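During the second year of the project, the team shifted from modelling isolated chains to modelling whole assemblies. The rationale, set out in the original proposal, was that interfaces cannot be judged from single-chain predictions alone. As a representative example for this report, we include one of the complexes processed in the last quarter. Its constituent sequences, exactly as entered into the pipeline, are reproduced here:
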Amino acid sequence: MSQPENRQFRLIRRPVGHVKREDFEFRTEPARAPEHGEIMVGVEYLSLDPAMRGWMNEGKSYIAPVKLGDVMRAGGVGTIIESKADGFVPGDVVTGALGIQTVATLAAKDCIKVDASLAPKPLFISALGMPGMTAYFGLLVVGEPKSGETVVVSGAAGAVGALVGQIAKIQGCHVVGIAGGAEKCRYIVDELGFDGAIDYKSDSVPAKLRELCPKGIDVYFDNVGGQILDDCLAQINLRARIVICGAISQYNNTTPVKGPSNYLALLVNRARMQGMIVFDYADRYPEGARAMAGWMKDGRLKSREDIVDGIETFPETLQKLFTGENFGKLILKV
Amino acid sequence: MSQPENRQFRLIRRPVGHVKREDFEFRTEPARAPEHGEIMVGVEYLSLDPAMRGWMNEGKSYIAPVKLGDVMRAGGVGTIIESKADGFVPGDVVTGALGIQTVATLAAKDCIKVDASLAPKPLFISALGMPGMTAYFGLLVVGEPKSGETVVVSGAAGAVGALVGQIAKIQGCHVVGIAGGAEKCRYIVDELGFDGAIDYKSDSVPAKLRELCPKGIDVYFDNVGGQILDDCLAQINLRARIVICGAISQYNNTTPVKGPSNYLALLVNRARMQGMIVFDYADRYPEGARAMAGWMKDGRLKSREDIVDGIETFPETLQKLFTGENFGKLILKV
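Output from the structure prediction step:
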């Protein structure tokens, strides 16, 4: 069988600061035929995530860095073209770390088969995929919100933040989101049902937090780090929980990360700050996906995808995450 | 009955940076006679603690600031001179917030009667008092060390740190202390049985941590903040626990507190950083004191007091905490 063409982005240089097109090679080669246990997948949608920036750096992290010369790592959803693995047949829809390429050949055991009749394919890399599981387990397991408590989330119009806020509302919390721009703020309040929104680009975050969180902050779900983390720390309650999910404001730094000057609020308030990585909850994904799908079916949870067409736009499209341009889960349509 | 003379330090100015003698008025007045429910105590030993610096500042903290004009707050131990409270009689030994003064008149319910036949009086404001309870509950409840894990403690020759390290050894941990100066380092290893010591004044803390903690850090008990907190964060293990007990390096800052730049190690390692205040464990002090007294009796736990004579030396003696001059629990003998 003649192999299909595979267009792909390989990382050829460790980016300094913001990612540039020259950090990658965009090339075309024949797709590799699957060996025993492997499948060949026609990639349809790729997930673009802030964490990808970290994977491009050298050095130990929670996951190995992408090696120079390798296809850039990315989660995705696609349809099997050819299979040498039991239980996987052409036409099956799978999700997994497919990479920024049009055709992925990889071990079937590293993929998850999904029922594409349940939801549009992009959802399997959005609310029903990694961002959904991050929001679900990060908020519920690490944040431990209780009904009546105040939950603040940053990056609130982003893939994870929008879900965190809605799940917190479902738990009976008072929910305030921090996002950039009037349109995103209107969206999280009017469309998603947040109790309040703070536009960090035009509002004074400390003053607005005082106004919108009159009883203080019990749970802060942090996607951004930097000054906003400090502003939230300054207003936490006794025994508050801070979930460190990301620090998008710091990922492209060429200077040291800004540490939270107000971390002694943890001492004064006997509060905790705890990091979370979604992969730790892999054995509980089915539980999370079931809950999320149920809430979506009931109309209590909405998911918004920002789908950009064309794998060739990858380096520039990824930048939308860091400039605050994306609105909802950023997805590349292949 | 003619009232005894009471010599006392009253806070008359909020210190800027380091505490100065001029921030206080040292005066003599007649002791106040006890009213119903009160006792008059002849103060014998006063506890000097880093937290006192925070109590001198204006603004919300875990405890109200000392008001300008009030006697400086301090824990102490002394003997009842006169009592108008049931169950308290002259000659009883009590601990409580006696304040920097020679005679304290206060509500008996705010004091704890201790059995002075069990231990020398200074111990009731050291290993069997607040520093002991801080070490015991901070390490065991917040730090949750497990046998075989690596525990690092800063301020390791100080009142709390020295006890933390010894309790961690009793739990079967590999224990490394960070202290200032060769004498303190020798003390914690040779006298207290720590597995290793780092002299932050002459060693490279990162290099020494790598050498002495080859398996990484599972629990870091932080008394100092600043650069040492960052150095430890850089070497934590998966699911590490960081106990924020104090930040003595930052208490006299006139510039903003240095936040931990490496806080994203919490994310990468799914670790947590949590503050602790000893007062939260007040209902469990008897349990803690019993355990500590038992270990001392068995010779497994040693306590060292640095006793300075003369209430009139208070402002200068307090400074020993911040210059690193004290060695063991700093106590003022009245």
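The mean pLDDT of chain B is 94. The domain at 5-126+303-333 of chain B is CATH 3.90.180.10 (Quinone Oxidoreductase; Chain A, domain 1).
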